Amino acid sequence: MNTNSAKAPKASSKSNPIAASISRSQWLRQGAAGAILGLLAACSSTPLPPEPPARLPAAEITPEREAASPSRPREVLQRERSRWVAVDWSELPGWGEDRAAELWPALLQGCARPAAGWAELCARALRSAPGDDHAVTLWLMQHLQAYRVESPEGETQGLLTGYFEPMLDATRKPQGDYQVPVHAAPVDLQQRRPYFSRQQLEGEQRQRLRGLELAYLDDPLDLLILQIQGSGRLRIKANANDDSGTWVRLAFAGHNDHPYQSIGKALIERGELRPGEASWPGIRDWMRRKPQQARELLWGNPRYVFFREEPLADPNVGPRGAQGVPLTPGRSVAVDRASIPYGTALWLEAGDPLQSGNSPLRRLVMAQDTGSAITGAVRADFFWGWGREAETQAGRTKQPLRLWALWPRGKT
Question: Among 26, 260, 273, 366, which is disulfide-ready with 267 (CB 3.0 to 4.6 Å)?
């Protein structure tokens, strides 16, 4: 395991030192309400004040003060698979409690390839350095409008899952237990759609992939996990007994255009595993107990993913997502692009992914990736990072989800 691997951030703390620094009555006496509401009304061209007018987050904007504003119809933005309904910041549960400054690096990464409507705001972000959580919160409130994301039918609840970047040992040539090849994309991949299935490529059509082997793994389930996650890190060893090696990254290079089928779901439907047992450790244990049925199980997922090898120059930088920018652990999510454009800032609320029974996950994130299973209006896949801890967290993430898109004011 790479000792330099960065750990994914933990779920947001429930504590809010900004709110604790001043009571609501004190804030009202000091006139900060007007200052914050003024920021909400400011257009994107208004410069930031040199110092925040108050040490109070948006969560302290009371519904009563919002309701005092003139009645107006809510703005609605239509997307291909979703609609966005404008809301007040007070409607975002837990707004102001997140470590908002942690979003800033992910936001700047996204600004390398800004979404339509974000170019002007990204230019300002690249010149800004808001600093602490409170300053970032105010910056977002000044420049962005919050929208509730819902399906075209008005459904506001969806699903949050998690993913990660696997870290695996491999060899360049088959030896010992390392007999499972990872392949580059064949030259005729785009000429035949769909391409051959997993069963065909591992059977009568295997000659089509001859010479395209990038490396060899020691477990067929690791290959499937690598293909599902879409990227990974390989420690290339000189031989099967080598305890050292050179780390490289495998990036997504295409797939055979077959639908993804969950092998965990298949085992549950067959009665082989109970729902709570269909985790990667549970599936791995089942395959070891029933090796004769393991290949048939894997063939039940006909999708086959191909990779390209890249150097791993900085082990603290995540893989590139579909937006074309590096993913940030705990701050990047995969979305349905027809519902949420890449480069969109989001506020999400989901159940506790660590299953500790504590607080829900409420966090600022950036939409920077996608996946074949990520479809629908209120749907997100949370990038936890790389390594064993990230794998464990990703495996536990399957919670009800609500989403709010944060979009530049005056842009559609």
Answer: 273
User: Is the pLDDT assigned to residue 266 strictly greater than 70?
Assistant: yes
- The pLDDT of residue 19 is 35
**Token pair of 393 as six digits:** 């967290």
Phi, psi of 353 (to 5 degrees): -70, -20
State the DSSP code for 152. T
Cα separation values, 92 from 58, 349, 375, Å: 9, 9, 23
pLDDT at 343: 97
Distance between CA atoms of residues 137 and 364, nearest Å: 10
Q: How far is CA 292 from CA 44, 79, 288, 368, in A?
A: 62, 47, 9, 40
Which DSSP letter does residue 71 get? P
Asked if the peptide bond before residue 326 counts as cis, ω within 30 degrees of 0, the response is: no
pLDDT value at 30 more than 70: no
List the Cα angle 196/300/373 in 5-degree steps: 85
Task: Round to whole Å and give the CA distance between 56 and 60.
Answer: 7
Each residue of 110-123: pLDDT tens digit? 999 999 999 999 99
Q: How far apart are CA 321 and CA 367, in angstroms?
A: 9
Do residues 227 and 254 lie in contact, with contact meaning Cβ atoms separated by under 8 Å?
no
pTM: 0.81
Distance between CA 135 and CA 324 in Å, rounded? 28
Mean pLDDT of the chain: 85
Residue 279 corresponds to which amino acid? S
Q: Is the dihedral of CA 16, 18, 21, 26 positive or negative?
A: negative
Whether the predicted pLDDT of 404 surpasses 50: yes
Closest by alpha carbon to 347, among 153, 165, 164, 136?
136
Tokens 């506020």: give the residue: 347
Q: Report the C-alpha dihedral over residues 262, 378, 391, 232, rounded to 10 degrees.
A: 80
Quick: pLDDT tens for 127-156. 988 889 999 999 999 999 999 999 999 999
For residues 162 and 226, the answer to whether their CB atoms sit within 8 Å is no
CA distance 374 to 306: 19
Tokens for 336, please give them: 């349905």
